[in-house]
Structure formats: C-alpha cells, structure tokens
Write a structure and sequence with these properties.
7 strands, 231 residues, 9 helices, globular, Spore Coat Polysaccharide Biosynthesis Protein SpsA, Chain A, 7-stranded mixed β-sheet
Amino acid sequence: MSRSSFIEDVYVVIPCYNEGAVIASVINILSNSFKNIVVINDGSTDDTEEVLNGLDVVQIKHPLNLGQGAAIFTGFEFLKRNTDALACVTFDADGQHSPLDAVLFAEEIKKCEEDVIFGSRFLGNQNEVPLLKRLVLKGVIKITNFLTNMSLTDTHNGLKAFKLKALTQLQTNLYRSAFETELIINIAKSDLSYKELPSRIVYTEYSRKKGQKLVNGFIIVEDLVRMLMKK
C-alpha cells in the first residue's frame, strides 16, 4: 500500500500493558495500512514505553495500570478532543488480531450506516477457538446478551470499529473484566446501531500466556455476576 493510500481518517486505538516483546511488530504491520495509531500505555512496567518511543505512534501513558477498559476510553477521549478522525478501530496489543481485519473494519465503518461494528470469532471461525475456551465464552455471551437485551455472537472481542459520533454517547463504570459488557450496555441504552463482522483470532503461545488463559473466562463471569448484583 503506497503512503498516499494510507487510511488517514480512521485511527487505530491500542490498549497496551507490558507488551514490549511484541508491540513493535504489531505497530509495524498496522503502519503498512494506517497513518494514525494511538497506543495507551496502561502503566506498563517492562520496556513498552521505550519501544513505543521509537515508533511513529501517539503514546498516552497511564501512571498506573487501570485496565483495558480505562485504556480504551482514554483513547476515545483523545480522539474526541484532539483529532479530526471519522472513526476508530480498537486492536489488541498482543498480536492476536488480523491486520487485514482491521483494514476491513476501517473501510466498512466509513461506508456503512451502523455506528458500531463488533468483531466475532463465531461467524465462520469458531473452530479456531480452543474447545474449552469456546464453551466458557459461549456462557459469557449468553449472560451478556441477557444483561443487555442484545443478540451478539461474540461479546469479548477486542476488535471493534466506532464512528466518532458514537464515542460521544458512551460511558462506562470500567469493571476490569466486565467492561465489555458495560460498553455494550451503553451502546444499547444510547440506541446506537450496530452489526457484526467475522474476525480471526490467532492464539499464539505468547497470547495464551499473556491473556488467553481459560481462567480469564471465569473471572469475566464472576465480574458479570458482581455487576448484575449492583444494578
């Protein structure tokens, strides 16, 4: 892709915590397609900051680790106040998402009528998800759809696209594991339109060690129950 054909009006927002080992490769691949990348360094204690300082990205630093939800919303606030972006794509820092999917989401969010696009591992790619993880995620999806009165096939996928105008209507209590559900609740309450697109997740050895452990699914369920009890 020539520099003149870079995607300029859709920004990539990347929450990042202790991803110094892989963040450069993730950024370099995305930089082949996107001109504007915003990385929220969420209190990393490894060499993430030093790596990001050498890359052509906007780095926003949290002094402490506040969680993925807080990092994403910091990115949203930056976009609303400091850019002329039309939309954004959220992308995980550990390399598990497909850059090609990010491009497809960016192109689609600009031309579609919907305000939000959710990535789904369960639209044609569910056999790529490990069986036990798939079963746990299916349970989380059912609980989330019950809480939100929505009908999504995947509710904890970091790949999403948002029109900029949609960001002004979103707020969240930022539950550390259940922020995705809080986000979906906000989308439902705000009457924002949405759709899903297939997305692929690459479960590398690195991503499994970092954040793809089966126990995380049970932590999400626990946070969902806690959130429900506070409603």
